[in-house]
């Protein structure tokens, strides 16, 4: 083969190869959201992806893949080509507690590389506006007097909202019926329609309904009241200081994703979270932006490992 043909062959081969990770991203990135539109993870994902897209110069396209407490989506991302163009926004349910809940889960913690923590979320218990109990004390008394008759909706077994329900029930010492949905938004819609008695949710998705009087907030698990729902007392104020919990959302990529792509995604996440637009939006939602230290992949990895161990002890082995 003469020199011209060799050069032509090399050029054709180079043209058929994917762009180098150093050039990442050269096209839009898909961010898989494990729940239906309108829930906490979805709301935070939209805010984060919009700002990250501006930093990267490429759109981040949110794709909602609900089902099985968010594990359907994470299983899909675990199998994706590890090139940085498909990532997931996960939470304590999908990336920690799920391993103690689902006996046949289709992924492991080692199937992902953390990109970084995006936000921390504040758990809220809310009830329908005509529920007979008007505060936490009377709600607990009502639930104890009617074991199994009160029902609380959540975003699916294994979701962060499911964990809110479980820890709340344990702290309050009550027996209620849990109703599983494909996301927080469908559960909240049914609460506003009076189809369920209450929901276990996060301030990011339920604050608006509380503000507009569509549902009644009972309690938040936070050290202080939320600016967005100032009339809702903290667990300590309401007489249940044992209920202490905080949720989180982090970004993950499939194992094997080039480090250059992880670095660029992490840098974009940092700039996105630091932006005035995202800081204001998070404050409006009642969510807490991650700190600089929390946004590192290493810190996110340590958090996930600690949460996996925590919920293995709390929930026990998969049934």
Automatic annotation (TrEMBL):
The keyword Signal applies. Keywords: Signal. The keyword Signal applies. SUPFAM superfamilies: Periplasmic binding protein-like II. It comes from the Bacteria. Pfam families: TctC. InterPro entries: BUG, Bug_dom1. Residues 1-21 form the signal peptide. Belongs to the UPF0065 (bug) family. This is Tripartite tricarboxylate transporter substrate-binding protein. It comes from Rhodoplanes tepidamans.
């Amino acid at each position: 083969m003469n020199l011209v043909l060799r050069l032509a062959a090399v050029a054709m081969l180079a043209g058929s190869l994917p762009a180098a990770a150093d050039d990442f991203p050269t096209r839009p990135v898909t961010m898989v959201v494990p729940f239906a539109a309108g829930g906490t993870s979805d709301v935070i994902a939209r805010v984060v992806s919009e700002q990250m897209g501006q930093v990267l110069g490429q759109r981040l396209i949110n794709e909602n893949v609900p089902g099985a407490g968010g594990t359907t989506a994470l299983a899909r991302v675990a199998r994706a080509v590890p090139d940085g163009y498909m990532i997931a926004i996960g939470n304590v349910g999908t990336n920690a507690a799920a391993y103690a809940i689902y006996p046949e889960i289709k992924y492991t913690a080692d199937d992902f590389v953390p990109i970084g923590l995006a936000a921390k979320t504040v758990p809220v218990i809310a009830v329908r506006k005509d529920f007979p109990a008007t505060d936490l004390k009377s709600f607990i008394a009502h639930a104890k007097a009617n074991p199994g008759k009160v029902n609380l909706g959540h975003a699916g077994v294994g979701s962060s909202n499911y964990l809110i329900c479980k820890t709340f029930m344990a702290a309050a010492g009550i027996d209620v019926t849990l109703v599983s949905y494909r996301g927080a938004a469908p559960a909240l819609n049914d609460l506003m329609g009076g189809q369920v008695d209450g929901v276990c949710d996060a301030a990011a998705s339920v604050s608006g309904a509380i503000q507009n009087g569509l549902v009644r907030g009972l309690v938040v698990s936070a050290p202080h009241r939320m600016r967005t729902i100032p009339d809702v007392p903290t667990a300590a104020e309401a007489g249940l200081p044992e209920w202490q919990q905080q949720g989180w959302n982090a970004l993950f990529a499939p194992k094997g994703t080039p480090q250059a792509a992880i670095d660029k995604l992490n840098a974009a996440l940092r700039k996105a979270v630091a932006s005035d637009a995202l800081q204001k939006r998070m404050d409006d939602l009642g969510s807490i932006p991650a700190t600089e230290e929390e946004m590192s992949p290493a810190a996110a990895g340590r958090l996930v490992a600690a949460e996996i161990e925590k919920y293995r002890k709390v929930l026990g082995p998969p049934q």
